[in-house]
Amino acid sequence: MNPVITLEALIVMDTIEQRGSYAAAAEALNKVPSALSYIIQKLEEQLGVTLFQRQGRRSVLTPAGKHLLEEGRLILGAVNKLADKTRSIANGWEASIRIAIDTMFNTEATFSVIEAFLADHPDMEIDIREEVMSGGWEALIDDDVDLLLGAAEPIPKQKGVHAVPIATLDRVFAVAPGHPLAGAEQPIPHTSIARERTVVVHDSARTAIPWTKGIITESRYFYVPTVDCKIRAQLAGIGCGFLPRRRVQHHIDAGRLVALEIENTAMAQETTMYMAWKIVNRGKGLKALKDRFIAKQQSLLEI
Which of 14, 22, 58, 118 lies 20 to 30 Å from 225 when distance is taken between CA atoms? Predict the structure, then answer.
């Protein structure tokens, strides 16, 4: 069954409405006016409505015609977008990029790089998910994402996964001013910390063995899904733990958090964060985005 409304009819309607007359539209479409009249008359007969009416020398849409053209322009836009994406894919540019961002890397600096990429490639679709620790590696290995940002060691040994250092995570052990450790003598020993509740971000792995990083053993745990939740929990005095220094420094400066020195300095060492992808993924969009992150590595140096 042939559709009543064709793309050709929508294009003719759009051109007539923009040009104001059949004659002007015919000139723009390189057709004779009678050909346009035939297309519109046939559409009106099949729909049982009047689409254009004469006002002096101009052809003006009726209310029914306005509705049809408004909706039709959406279809024309979608068709043009489909054509553009098809040509892009044929030239090696994928239609979308799926990204897993580790919760520690979910910052304004990260999204500023993505925004600049989209400014140059506005038709590219980006699908972002937030992961924690091994959850990001799992998503990449299972082909659920094309790019992993901010992943922590250890790097999986699976062949075909390539990882490059992209940033450094500087962590600080912090508590709310009213927390029992806030007034303790520093450096604070492990035994004192172990008596307190620690706020821990859940590893988001579904099937892989969850990792632990920066967790105080023997402590009571308060689990949260993201770093943002961890920050809010520690601001509320629920517990203690390591936080990304850059994201909480303004809270420390304002006195909403207290930075503490601890005896186990190894736990507070800087952590390297990686960008990773599968070598078989050779899309031009992915390469362009990776190159932008590498180019901005200096500004991402400390997350």
Answer: 118
How many C-alpha atoms does 42 have within 13 Å on its Cβ side? 14
Whole-prediction pTM: 0.66
pLDDT of residue 137: 92
- Give the tens place of pLDDT for each residue, 187-229: 999 889 889 999 999 887 666 544 555 555 556 889 999 999 9
The position carrying tokens 């998503």 is: 139
Work out the burial of residue 173: count CB atoms within 10 Å of its CB; fewer than 13 is exposed, 13-18 middle, 19 or more buried. Answer: buried
Strands across the sheet containing 161-169: 125-131, 96-102, 147-152, 271-278, 161-169
Residue 287 CB partners (closer than 8 Å, separation 6+): none
Q: What percent of the chain has pLDDT over 90?
A: 55
What's the rounded Cα separation, in Å, for the pair 16 and 29?
Answer: 10
Give DSSP secondary structure letters for 16-75. Answer: HHHHSSHHHHHHHHTS-HHHHHHHHHHHHHHHTS--EEEETTEEEE-HHHHHHHHHHHHH
With the C-alpha atoms ordered 30, 32, 37, 38, is the resulting torsion angle positive or negative?
negative
Query: Worst-scoring range by mean pLDDT, 105-109, 111-115, 160-164, 284-288?
Result: 105-109
* Pair of tokens at residue 268: 């507070």
Q: Which domains does the chain have, with CATH numbers?
A: 7-90 (1.10.10.10), 96-168+272-295 (3.40.190.10), 171-269 (3.40.190.290)
